[in-house]
Amino acid sequence: MADEESPAYPKVPRSTINRYKPRGKYDYASIHDIVNTMPIVHVSFPTLDPEDPFPAVLPMIGFMASFENQAAGLDEALDLYLHGYVSSRIMRLSKDGGSGAEKGLPLTVAATHLDGLVLALTPNSHSYNYRSAILHGYATPVTDHEEKVWAMEEITNSVLADRWTNTRVPPNKTEMTTTQILRVRIVSASAKIRSGEPHDDRKDLKDEEMRKKVWVGVVPTWIQYGEPKACEYNLAGNVPDYVKAFVDGENKEGRRKAEEAAMDGG
């Protein structure tokens, strides 16, 4: 992972890891990688309904990038772009900034990878290997046409690499009108990462009879993409090489990360 000298988000009370502090990460690279390799992020926002005290939560497609610096790496300052329908509640609220003290609708965004089931000697010591990130920021609609099309391309390719240029593009007027992109300026964020084997109590480790009966270890876990299936109206022939390459590459990388996490001494 990134070292302590890497650019990082500021530690503030809402983002500081308090339990298992060594698992906490604040550097850009760790946090941005978790978000950009997760197909779905969960976005929480205030509804501003005086009759309903609960914030809303939506699963959304998001991607971290920089329109001003399109060559920026994961270890540089990035914005979060979210894709949605123009008349949805979150998009409507973002137009006037909601109740945020700064310009924009205040959001909390969560992304989590499950890397393994950690099976210990006792239920209380069971755990997961995981990589999770929580981000806080202010969302505003993207109104510039060039930035909007760029963001739509980035988000599409985050779903499946090279998909944008292998579809009917550019989007038509109706698609551009009904689609809204939010740019989220991140003000604080943190990640929490757990890897390695189970951590059992010393008392249980001394009980050899019990250890002979209870299997302990890690079940590596990752997203597995299946064999692509053509739909009924497909006329393009066999599965394209770029789709095959994406499926194979993601499956191999997911497995590699999960198995490395299982063997990690962290």
From TrEMBL:
Signal peptide: none annotated. It comes from the Eukaryota. InterPro entries: Pyridox_Oxase-rel, Split_barrel_FMN-bd. PANTHER family: 5-NITROIMIDAZOLE ANTIBIOTICS RESISTANCE PROTEIN, NIMA-FAMILY-RELATED PROTEIN-RELATED, FLAVIN-NUCLEOTIDE-BINDING PROTEIN. This is Flavin-nucleotide-binding protein. It comes from Amylocarpus encephaloides.
